[in-house]
Fold this protein.
Amino acid sequence: MALKKKTSTKNPPILSHEFVIQNHGDIVSCVAMLFVVGLMVQVTSPLAYMFIALHHNVTSTVQDSEYGVPIDVLRYTYGVRDACAVFFYFLICIVMHAIVQEYILDKFSKKLHLSKSKQNKFNESGQLLVFYVISFLWAGDIMVRENLLTNLSSLWLNYPHNTMAFTLKFFYIIQIAYWFHSYPELYFQKVKREDISSKLLYPTLHLVFIVGAYLLNFNRVGVVLLSLQYLAEAAFHTARLIYFSDKSESGRKGNFFRLFFMKCCRCGIQGFFSEGKSILFHLWSSK
């Protein structure tokens, strides 16, 4: 998902399409900053808090396993006000996209002297690789904290899982916000009209799966399956970046890694669906 900047020194008219495309990172960051500043003003802090913080929290009392005393545990459910949080972090995703593009990917692509089509693919893989690696590590941390790896039966036992920990809910909010931000990025990238439909399919499929898992209380299953999928996708885009950056051996090293990681990606996708069917079977049989 490339963020292309016009090399012309002529400044476009203010509020024109070209002006918005060139400066969309700064514009969106100013909008996001209004919410942050709003927290500091007593009159606007309730409204700003609605967009920045997570809502629909519930407190339950559980018995401490070590000391045997009751303790209060703060958990979260989903609700209408989650849309406000998704909107704010949707703005943050646009800003982070522009930062990664300008300060990381543009510096590498200038050294590689790629063609326009290859540069777009290089930038797309670079953006997705950063997101996939961060999401995979985050999902792994959640699975360790929730003991999902050591106790796989917890994925389907006591379904539906109506409540979530803070980190798990925040994970889903960020996931939804990130894939929603892919839609305006098509405008910022000046994607051709005939290519829009194919570009829309990828984020839409992710949104259907993530929102479905979030709203249908498959939050534990969803984070496990997303970690598997993101690991395979990260491997694929790593190979893609190696392919574009490997010029010394005419791309032979990149082709080798690309084929190897594509095999890993295929295995990951197959495992994604087979594991999902197995978990859904357990959920169905436990009813």
